[in-house]
Amino acid sequence: MRPGPIVAQALEIAVALAAAPLFLGWVNQCRAWLANRGAPSMLLPYRNIRKLFHKDAVLAENASPLFRIAPYIVFGTMVVAAGIIPSLAGRLPLVVAADAIALVGLFATARVFLSLAAMDVGTAFGTLGARREMMIGFLAEPALLMVIFVASLISATTALPAISAHLASERFTIDPSLAFIGVAFTLVLLAENARIPIDNPATHLELTMIHEAMLLEYSARHLALMEWASALRLFNYACIGFALFVPWGIAARDIGPFGLTLSIPVLALKLAAAGGGLAVIETVSAKLRIMRAPEFLASAFLFAVLGLLVHVLLGGA
Amino acid sequence: MPLAKWWDQARQLPGAPRTCGLGVNAETWSQCAGDVAASGGRLLAMWASACDAWDNADTVEIDDIAGPAQGAQSARDGGSLATEAYAAFLTDRGVLILELPIERSGAAAAESTHYPGLEGLFPCASRMQRAMFDVSRVRSSDPDRRPWLRHPAEGYELIRVAGDGVHEIAVGPVHAGTIEPGHFRFSVVGEKVLRLEQRLGYTHKDIERRFMELPLAEGHRLAARIAGDCAVAHSWAYCQALEGMAGCIIPPRASALRALFLELERIANHLGDAGALANDAGFAFGLTQFSRIKEELLRTMSQALGQRYLLDAVVPGGTQVDVSAEAARSLASRVAAIGRESAQLGTIYDDHAGVRDRFTGAGILTPELARRLGVLGLVGRASGQPLDARVDMPSAPYDVHVPAKVVRQEGDVAARVAVRFGEIAESCRLAQALLASLPPGAHRTAVRAPPAGSFATGLIEGWRGPVFVALEAGPGGTIHRCHPHDPSWQNWPALEHAILGNIVADFPLINKSFNLAYSGVDL
Description:
The complex is a heterodimer. Chain A is an all-alpha fold. Chain A contains twelve helices and no strands. Chain A has helices at 3-34, 44-53, 65-84, 93-97, 100-120, 124-155, 160-169, 176-192, 211-215, 220-245, 257-284, 293-313. The mean pLDDT of chain A is 89. In chain B, 41% of the residues lie in helices and 16% in strands. Chain B has a five-stranded mixed β-sheet, covered by helices on one side. Chain B has a three-stranded antiparallel β-sheet with strand order 6-7-8. A three-stranded antiparallel β-sheet of chain B has the order 11-12-13. In chain B, helix 8 (252-280) packs antiparallel against helix 9 (284-305) and helix 8 runs antiparallel to helix 15 (413-436). Classes of the chains: A mainly alpha, B alpha+beta. The A-B interface holds A 31, 34-37, 124-125, 128, 196-197, 200, 202-208, 216, 283, 285-292 and B 167-171, 175-177, 191, 278, 280-285, 287-289, 292, 352, 354-355, 357-358, 362, 503-508.
């Protein structure tokens, strides 16, 4: 194998690692502006991660090795997922190695380890968070898979770069089934990334937490990895969204220096727009009562199924 | 009506209007309490006149209670101490205070029973009686003998719920946010709450003891600091009691200013709660907007009155500060603006589907349950209990400036929010009316020292509910005994009921809608 693709692959992962906290910082900044507050620096997530890496880790006395390993596994799966998703270019070694269904599996792996680690220490809040996370997860995954199936039906493949290239190559028409799965995907993104209206990433109320409750026992480098992994997950979801719904600007064939230097600013633009949109959704919504989460995710699934039906009804051309 | 019989025997007490005292024995104590309960009266407060220092031991074992430090000598001599147990009731005719003389033996304190408990008639009495033992070491007949304020090092038995799939969630006393300490033990099945048991007392600092070391003329400062968010209510209630026993009539300008301060305190707290409630529902927009409005009010207060929070505004004989005509204008215009803005934001809450969904039907306290539990104040008014001391037992200037009661029947979070919004509007109207008609003259008058042994009470409707202060003068202008009573005593147990059947994730929202005092009841 020539060194070019490997360098490009490494570059894509490096961009994901670097851009993920920045994206989170951007969303937080937009939220603060929309709430008429003075915004924190966009670089705050970096400073937070740096601060945490400089601290000494504290572990519960009864923490098993699983509790220590989990942050590395969760972080690792998110890094691999970032490599699989065609965020910058389509023909990279990892991108073509795994398809979209494997990607959903990777996210599920991270969730399983995160939940196991949360229950490991045996505190009430960790278990509470893990239980809620699994509830959200088992409802969100089918919806996400259904979204991917519809996109796969349109392009007759489950490989993300091929779907992306196919959708980008079509004439610019608004496919109604894409609109339906676009809504479904947005709902799944909100639920899977612990955003309002499912979870509130800014809350200090332990009893209402989902994602944060699972991280309460973590400190220092473990917490830093978990926080970074959360930022990566949000970034990854955004990039899946770009690959499916705004696939233009991803270097399909050219993975040389020119193609990549062009796709990085395009990605930055997309992220800026997506972050703004996410902040708007979070600002105008209140958090749902947690028992309403199934309804929320059921509607995501329903939208995805509607997308499928529309695709079939319109002849699947 | 049997209650009238007791009223006829009672003697008028100075201080709070329509307050009477009645000496009873153990038998008539129970009879009278039963008549009050039968006629729909409420338990307002319970306390005992003794307030002894405990031994300096850090941990207190129930079995191991020695004689009080002051009375240790007499206890060792086999003697006993005379003291009084008091119970104040809120009835249609006013406040009736029963005085029960009791013999308190030092040695056998652990086993003996000193007075009949009222927990069967008034469920909220249980915690007050447990606190009475912790503070004054007089024991009621209540079988629940667990300590309330003085925490033993270990061995506090919480009530357990057993069953398939039932587990416990322990929250606090240390929380993830910067809030006051309290322990909440939830028994849940999945997300559903089967039982909540509270444990408070983590900020117990023996305030009642501290009162005894202060001169009468300085007690108002400590009273204001018992619960900082109802400083005016507590310090006014204290001053009302002190002025009552001293026979001091405060100038009309002073009472108008006090009412103005009380309404400003009510507005500021309701604004803060309105924002915090939306934030707990994940609607951060509400928090930023209401925090801004509240801050603007606090800054206007700081300019006009020299204090952001009115901790030292009410002093015996009047108020510490006067309000200049210019300050009155700036306050009036600010209050008017707040009334408009909060009403606008209120419509946003009403129109927001997500916020409405969270508020409506959460933490319902039915009017029937609220009546049985003796709930007071704002929480009571949101559950159909039309009690407001400003209207029911008005002291000047509320006899002229009559507030409209804001009462809702639903008893859910939405009702408590609606009562807050209604009271913001009403308090804005009252504050403007008070500012527009401030009587001329002095804002303060001298208070002479009352004779030793004088007893008087104060009752002021703070933003949470009626704040009650019982004050007894010692010789030479000292405080013999001061018992401040926050309405949170009555409302904390109601929270345990309001959460039942709700999901545990809704507890912070329901708790915030009650927003009860920790420091105010931990004393």
